[in-house]
Write a structure and sequence with these properties.
about 50% helix; eight-stranded mixed beta barrel; Beta-Lactamase; elongated; alpha+beta; single chain; PAS domain S-box-containing protein/diguanylate cyclase (GGDEF)-like protein
Amino acid sequence: MHPFSLQASFLCLALSAEPEDFRLVTKSSRQAAEAPESTNLAALAKLTTASYEILERELRAAIAALEDQALRFETAIDNISQGICFFDADERLILCNRRYAEIYRIAPEQLQPGLTLGEIVERRVAAGTSAMAADAYLALARAVNSGAASRNWTANLIDGRTIQICHRPMPDGSWIATHEDITELAANRLIVDERMSLQTLIDWVPDYMWVKDTESRFVVANRAIASDNGRDKTSDMIGLTDFDLHAPDLAQKFRAIEQDVLRSGQPMIDEEEFVVDASGAGKWFSSTKVPLRNVQSDIFGLVGIARDITARKQADVLRDGQAHILEMIATSAPLEDVLDRLMRLVESQLTGILGSVLLLDKDGSHLRHGAAPGLAKDYTNAIDGVAIGPKVGSCGTAAYRREPVIVADVMQDPHWEDYRELAAAHGYRSCWSTPILSHQGAVLGVFAMYSTTVREPTEAETRLIDFTTRIAGIAIERKLAEDRIHFMANHDVLTGLPNRALLEDRLSQAILYAQRYDRWVTVVFIDLDNFKLVNDTLGHNAGDELLKTVAARMVECVRATDTVVRLGGDEFVIVLFDQPTNVDRIAETLQKIRMAIAEPVQLGAHRLRATASIGIASYPKDGANPDALLANADAAMYRAKEFGRDNFQFYAPEFNTTAHEKFVLQEELRNALARSEFTLVYQPQVDLRSGQVFAVEALVRWNHPTRGTIPPTAFIPAAEETGLIVPIGDWVLHEACRQNKDWQDAGLPPMTICVNVSARQFRERNLIGRVVNALADSGLEAGYLELEVTESLIMQDIDLAVATMNELQSLGVQISIDDFGTGYSSLSALKTFPVARLKIDKSFINDLVADENDQAVASAVISLGQKLNLRVIAEGVETEDQVAFLRRNNCDEMQGYHFSKPVSASDIGELLGRKD
């Protein structure tokens, strides 16, 4: 046993003995000393006394040491922050410290050793510091003591405090318990838990969230802002400023904004800010910064939240860019500008991507550079004009296949076998090409994305490819459509030659060049001869083929600098650019053109030879401007027609005199109707057998106010050319019907009035209506009206002519064929015509007596008419011999000077009265 332990045990025994016992021992010792062996006993007694004294001193020293140690233990226990209590097996208090009394608000002197647990619980209930009723607490304590394991629990006192109790049973039935007031600790832990929960909460927020003090130092930051700024933990952000995270100019901008918020107290709401994160990626944020105030309303910091709107900004850029590109397309911006803007838009949406557009050439087999602002110029120059095919990189193959070609590694893909070195020289490792198709599926070009890394396109890049190819297709199609529209606006659809709209521009440029270099410009006006006959006999398709063939031949006869123009119909103009001042040289070119036109043309089963009337005018001698040159070349062309066609004529000033007169005549004709300058005269038609007048032909005359009476031959061709013959003919029809009705009303014998119908009138859709109106307005019966049509007019369109004549016949109107024998009608056609009379043209009557051919024709016509049950009338009869021939050949009727010249309406009454 340890000495201290022995001494302590002994001390305990000594302290536990009674004083009477101690005196008894002392008395016994003295009696022993008085024994016979007195000497020895005396010595022994002395020794015993000395030992006792030593032992007593040691004992008292040990007691003092133990008392000091106990005092220290008591002091230590009383200064422990936890309350401690010791109970024996009988539930009596052995020891408790001061903190235990303080926790339960009991005076320390009221907690003396020996108190039972029940007594102590009653004191706690009285102090209002019990967590539960006394019986319940005692039951809980005894339940814990019945086991061998410790138990911890928390007691919530009535006064609101929280006590944590640790109860440890001992083997002998006693126990030790500690009691700790954790009210503040619980509150602090709650704050810590709340902080931890708040940090967890804001870390889950994908937006930037932070709190800064008045010096713009981070106090709180969430994981999003920490991660984007290259920090592993949010705590690494605490104490930092924007100057530790961003470039100085950007950090200064943020600090100025935040200081303004702190100074003014006004929040910044949803302002857009651009930030470059730790990876170098630029991002757009919508930021809100709000000042923080304490209970005194003093600002002690600010809280901020920023939402990443980079995707939205990119979408806005894409949408705005798309709108701008569509606007460029709508306003006809140059295609290269549209495609360049489109490629820059694509590259702004992606990182590490370069865009390119190649356009399919007109030949349909090569790709031409369209736009590639990000690609190296050497590369774009090298692939410009590449042919499409099955192994021509990504672009040539995509155009050939008409489907996307995605190449993840150009160094390995067989499509790039011939172009790997070119791509490697510029660092292009992947290329994704998509054909640009029209709305009809035709290949217009190829859009390609290049990347410097080996990879395939992402889903977002695929969507952008689809968008870009659609926009590019719209732009290219619009440009092609504009080109076609421009071409059609300036070129003839049938022949592809420049048209009248482009003629003036080309001619003006040629004149400017001639002025500068003292040269000539020659304008050649060409009109095909008898082209209408081709259309009428072989159809318009044949006529179109003839025009295209002649146009191509004329183009082959001139230089590339010259211009061949189709004005319309069968009229062409050639502008000979930069001509020498030599008429003979020009004549050689014209003769070459004339001979080329005259070469045979095969039109189906027919082989034709075309001719042309050509007029020539040259700058500067024949005109100083385009209009004058064209007018004079036109006048020369008409002179060529007058000379029998199939020739060319150089312009002469006198041509304009004739042209001017023609123009004046046309203008005066337009005013003649309004001024009532037209009048009718009537020439009788006589029955050769009875000698009676049975009809009159109405003939129009023009009583010009200054030139007097103008015969029909002088103005009818001009009226036909201008279309004025239609209103003039309508006036003649109405006036003739009115006059015939007046004669009838005046008591004259009923007779037929004959009115000539021109080809222009006959083709009018409302001819029948005009006839009906004339009869209705005049009140004349249809049987007293006869319309004379020429043989050539009928043969222009037999089906239309027969249909029109049948309608007129159904009205009761009679039809006669004028100038019969000068046309080319067949007997099979003639027998289908619903006509009543044939009129032998006066050209066969003039020399009827002396010319056997005329006699043969006249006899044949008379015989033909009789065979077809048609009456035959001869016009232009002037002599008795002519009358005798007609009577011998049984001609039915005659008209001419032999009987009467054309006379006025009043003279007809006298003439009829004289014959009666």
